[in-house]
Structure formats: C-alpha cells, structure tokens
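In response to reviewer comment 3 from the previous cycle, which asked for concrete evidence that the modeling workflow produces usable outputs, we include below a single protein chain processed end to end. The sequence was submitted unchanged, and the resulting structure tokens are shown without manual editing.
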Amino acid sequence: VKEGKVVENRMYFIRSAENRRREVLISAISLKSDSGAAGAVISWHDVTEQEQAKKVLRRDKETFERLVRRKSDELFQAQIKLNQFKRLSDIGTLAATVAHELRNPLGVIRTAVFNLKRKITETSLERHLENIEKKIAESDQIINNLLNYSRIKAPQPERVRIDELLQECVKTAHARFKSEKTELDVDLKPVSGRTAEIDPFQVTEVINNILNNAYQSRKASGTVRIWLRAEQRNSVYEITVRDNGSGIDPEDQKHIFEPFFTRKSKGTGLGLSIANEMIHLNGGDITVNSSPGKGTEVRIFLPARIS
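The workflow returned the following structure tokens.
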C-alpha cells in the first residue's frame, strides 16, 4: 500500500432490526497500491451507548454546575444572615447598656419635672417643662426601639378588643403631643366590641410608632390631620393611619422597612422596620403609600380571628 487517506468520517443515524434508533460512526479510508490499483477500507462502529453516555455526562456536568452555583449563593446568603445575627447581637448588647445608662437619669429628670410642675405657677415656665417632658418621651422611645429590635420574638397572642387597644394608642399620642396643634379624627365604630387574638404588646408598639411618625411629619406652616380607622372586611382587620405631612420621596420608599434607614435628623430609623417585623409575626401585612408634599398613608392588615 502506497498511501492511505481518510475520505469520510461521519456520524449517521439508522434504525435497527428492532426499529430502534442507533448512532453509527462510518469511516472510509482510500487506498492505492504501488501498481496503481485503488480501493478503500470502510468501517462502521455502533456508538449509541458512548454518545448517550456523553450526553448523560454533559447533563450531569450542567446539573452539578447549577447545584454548585446555587449552593454558593446559599452559602453567601447564609454568611450575610450570620453577619446580620452578629450585628443584632452587638445591637442587643449596646441597647442593654444604653437602657441601663440612660433610663435611670431619664427617670430622675422625669420625676424632677413632675415635682416642678406641682410647685411652679408661672405659665411661661410650664411650656418649657412640657418641652422637657416631650424630649424625655422621645429619648425613651429611642431606647425602646433599640431594645425591641434586638429582642423581637414570637408573638404571645391574647384575646383583646381591637377598638380598645387602638383607643389606648390614641390616648398615648394625645398625651405625648398635647402641645401640638394636631387634629385627630378617630373612627373605630366598624369593629366596636370585636375581639381578636393578637399580641397586644407588639401591635400596640406598632400603632404607637406609626402615630409618632404621623405627628412628627407635620408641616412647619400648618397642622397634621391623622385619620385612624379600623374595620372588619374579608376576615381581616384593616387599620389605617393617614397624615397630610411632608410625605416620602419615591426613591426612599424602597428602603423604608430597612433597619436604620432614616432621613430624619433624629431617631434610629427602626420604627417601620420593627412594625413590619411584628405585624408579619402576627400573621398580617403592612403597606405604605406616600407622595411628597401630600402626606402618607399606612395600612395594617391583621387576621380577624373573631370571637
């Protein structure tokens, strides 16, 4: 044989005697002898099993790569959560320290103001004392927010009258902001006398925080109207708090439930984050709709579980 050259090496699909699809590799090699005679060697190989094995390997490789990517993402998210838990632990330690170091002197100041108000008769001084009381309440709320955020736990449901709970929140807001020129419109008739199984401490904390935000968002040139309503609809209690304050920028609305996010000059930025967490723990939901210059509406939905 003088030379040999591969003239064809191609894969074909054929049907076997059992009418099964098979993959066959056919190779043809040209031959030429010294005397000039020519010929060819043709061979074929059934490579069905090999090709199927390759496909399985490719599929398994892709599956493995997807699994690795998914597990890598899960590990990354787990690391983020671990860092968050550590951060919460640090916050808890800080909050406990702050509570211990600040609540005692705040208590002393509150008692001193109370005694002064009993003895002082000058009207001009009463206004200053009320401002001191307001700042004490604000400081106490900051401490509460830190402690609540670091100690959020599973709710302890109790059967409570939802209208009475909301009325207590309204009284608290009245007492805290009694010097403010704020009109408060309350409508609780749709659920008067109705009860629900909720954690009264957590829901009260949420409503107080939202009412505080509504009062504090008032415009410098006017008053804030707050409308609070609770109603039973589709086995859900709907609580609405609406103000006509400065509103929230659309870009900021994306972050309002994130811990420590705030545009205020004071405060921790934990109020709505705590509210969101506690309401969800009680099986409910919370939404915020706001327009710059037109005010904010917060709606809370809680499962009725009515008796």
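The chain is about 50% helix and 25% strand. We consider this sufficient to address the reviewer's concern, and the full set will be provided in the supplementary archive.
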